[in-house]
Amino acid sequence: MESKFNLTPLALDIFEAIKQAGGHVYLVGGCVRDFLLKRRSKDIDVEVHHLSFEALKEVLSPFGTVQVMGASFAVVHLSTLEGYEFALPRIEEKTGMKHQDFNIIVDPDLPLEKACARRDFTINSMLYDVETEKVIDIYSGQEDLKNGILRATNKDHFSEDPLRVLRGASFMSRYGFKMDGDTKNLCQSIVEEGGLETLSIERIYTEYCKILMGLYPSQGFNFLRDIHGLPFYLEDLVTTHQRTDYHPEGSVWNHTMLVTDLAALCKHHTSEPLWFMWSALLHDIGKPLVTTPEGHAYGHAEEGAALFNEKVDLILSHKQKKYIYTMIQYHMVLPTFSRNHARKIKFLRFLKAIDQKAPLKDLLYLARCDKLGRGMVTSASINELNEYIEEMISICGDHAPAAIVTGKDLINEGFENHQDYSKILSLAYDYQLQGLNKEVIIRRLKNETGCHCG
Q1: Which CATH number fits the domain 9-148, given the four candidates 3.40.50.2300, 3.30.70.260, 3.30.70.420, 3.30.460.10?
Q2: Domain HD/PDEase spans what residues (predicted)?
C-alpha cells in the first residue's frame, strides 16, 4: 500500500498490548473505506480477535477508564482514546421484525469471512491488519469502491436490517456512489415488506440528515423515490405537475431535487446548515394540496407550513421545527417583494414576522436556490432580487427593530384589559413601523381601545 494508517502513539501502544496478550487487532468498516478514499475518518472501529471480552477489558484498563457501551455486543470505549471503539467479532441472528430484534453471538475466534459477512456493503466489509499493515478484502470491496458501486456484502443477511436502505441512500448522497441492481432490488423488497416502518423516528432522522448533508442529496432521495421508500409528503411531489412555462424542469419533485442540490452548495453560508437543508427539501410540500389542473399552486407556502407542523414527525427539536416552519411559510416572500418593489413598511413587517425564528440571510439563500431550481432563471432575475434586498437592508437593517412600547408601558399607562395586551402591543409595533413616536402611539392606542386611564 502507498501509505500507512495514521494512528496515534497511544493507539499503537494499546494495540501492542493486545498483541502481547494474545489478541489480534483489525481496523474495520468505514474507517478502512475512508482510508482507501484518502479521507479522514473521525471514528475508528477496532475489532479484536482471539481475546475474551474480560481479557480485552483487562488489557485496556491500564490505559484509561473502560466504558462498556454494550455488554451483549462486547463493545467498549476507552476514556483516553476519543473516537476509537473496541469490539469482538460477532454474528447477528434476526429474531423479530423490529430493527433491534437480533440475537448476538460473540465469538473471539470467528473466521474473518464470517466476521465481515455481517456488514452491510462490500465497501464497508474490509479490514486493515494493524500488524501486517495490509488491507484484507474478502468481498471485493476495493473493486466496488474503485467503481463507485454499493453492493450488499451478503444477500441472505442484508435484508435483516431495514436501516441499510437508508444507509445506502446516505452513501449515495455523501460519496456519489451508484447502487448495484441486485442490491437495489433487495432494498425495494425491504420497503414493500414494511421494513422502514419498523425503524424509530430517531434512526430515520439521523440517516435523512446524512443524506441532506452530503454532496449530492438528490442521488440519495432519487434512490428512495425509485424504491417507493419516501414518506407521503415527499412521495406526493413526484406526481404533482407544474406549469412548464414557469417550471420546465417538470414535477415538483424534480424542482425540489434541483433546489436541494443547490442548497448543498451554499449551506455553509447559512446560520444552521442542517436546518437549512431540511427547509430546502420541504419547502414545496404544500403544492400537492393546492395545485390546480392548470398548474397553479396559490397558497402552497402556507399550506406547506401547516402540513409540516401536523404531519412531518421526524423533527423533534422545537427550535429546529420553528426554523423550518418559518422557512417554508415565507420562502416566497422575498422574490415577491422584489418583483413588486414592496415598500419599506412591508419589509419591516416581514422582519418582525421572522424575528427570532429564521435569519433573513437564510431565507434569501433559499429564495435564490428556489429561483435557480427552475432551470430558466436569468442572472438578471437573481441580480434584481439581490439589489432589492441590499437596498432594503441599507434602509431597514436585517433585523426587526426593538419595540418602543412594551407591556410595562401599558401597565404604567393604566391599560386594564391584560388579556388584550398581545393585540395592543402588535398594533403599537405596527404604528412604530409606520414612523410614529412613542407618545403618539400611546395616545392612539388609548383612543382606539377606549381606554380612559392615565
Answers
A1: 3.30.460.10
A2: 248-369
